Protein: MFS transporter
Organism: Pseudolysobacter antarcticus
Amino acid sequence: MPPAPPSQRRAFSTIFLIELWERFGYSGMASLLVLFMVQKEGFGDQQANLIWGAFTALVYTAPTIGGWIGDKVLGTRRTVPIGAGILALGYLLLSIVGDGSYPLYCAMGVIVVGNGLFKPNAANMVRRIYEGEDAKIDSAFTLYYMAVNVGSTMSILLAPWIKDRFGWHAAFAICCGGLLLGLINYLVMLRSVDGIGSPADEQPIRWNRLALVLIGAVATVGVVAFVIQHREVAMTGIFIAGIVILAIFAYMIKTGARHERAGMLIALILVVETWLFFIFYQQMSTSLTLFALRNVDWNQNLFGMHVFTWSAAQYQALNPIWIMLLSPLLAWTYRHFGKRGRDLPIAGKFAIGFAVVAIGFLIFGTSGASAVDGKVSSWFMVWGYGFYSLGELLVGALGLAMISRYVPLRMSGFMMGAYFVAVAISQYLGSVVANYASIPENISDPLASLAIYTSLFNNLGLLAIAATVLAVVLLPLTKRLSATTVRCVSDQPSQT
């Protein structure tokens, strides 16, 4: 008699919790790492920004390989705890590395490997839990996205607080500890995900394959450490990746069936717009955090009363907080207009998204007009992050939905990987943009740094306005292509 299928709720809870703790570890580390390089390791702004850009680019690229390992080599269910364990090791290494850049680069390489193995496979397990149940899977991924933001908020508030009281290494150790909790919970609840995974999970584990994966992981750590510390290598890789992404789209459009080409053209347009958005996104860990360090008044008052005191790194928590507040409202809005047949196309949502991103950066940019001794009120950060986060929900969060909607099913897996590589390119380019506000080491006057930061933010606001105009200009084209896609698909002969 076959075993009873696992409870969907218990299986989802197992993945939900390990994802929450994985984000706890990653977001806590991300909130501190640029500041760690600048304040503890003595790196200049330019070096720290570019190292962070190369690191995050590799973090976004690695899942394209990790997903294949989970699907074809080790099994999705097995790869998740392996990735989580390697990530915990990376945070542990950050907590014990002494002065010196190379051990830091190696720790970052371990994190890249762990993220590549964990991220795509955890999401893939959620999809497999509710495979064939579209209504449930939409709800599940909404809750899953909530797990990301709950974990991020917790760690971005806690890790800097630990750093201020117990030091950098204790803060990174907290990131490791949180992920270990998630890993232990996953192993304890492992039976709840029996039967959920890729076909490789149902085969006996092949130790030679596991050994090859681990050997490859060690080699990848060395490669990442090399790329991170050589700007020319990183730039060359980004340039090649950009050409490859465009070549892939050109090939798919050229060789695709007639009814597929229109959808691929829409996807190309929206991928380029998403590419641009993540340049703005990268400012959160770079220029905005360094701005908060040097030019934001951490002690915030309202109506003459003290409200809160946040350190520079903790301002990044405003992003997940706003996302958790705005997501239900936005979901209700989509449903409300969708029921009346008035829901905007994704291209229209992208245009609105860039408009509110522009408002957010112009809030940051105009904050200098009311500065006192080079310090601006924290409320500019609160409201700037609010508009920026709404833009993220309208652009960044819809990127994968765009791939699912317009790219043919037979190409979707490949194009998902291409999408993440495109985001990786944006991460590095965003760090290059952040360097336009890098503060020379001989400048310590807040008045001088304020002018540099606000100039960058105003220019980014203008760039977002230009992106809005471009998105609006392209709306008729995307609408026509979308109608062509629907019409051509409906004209296809039935497969029954």
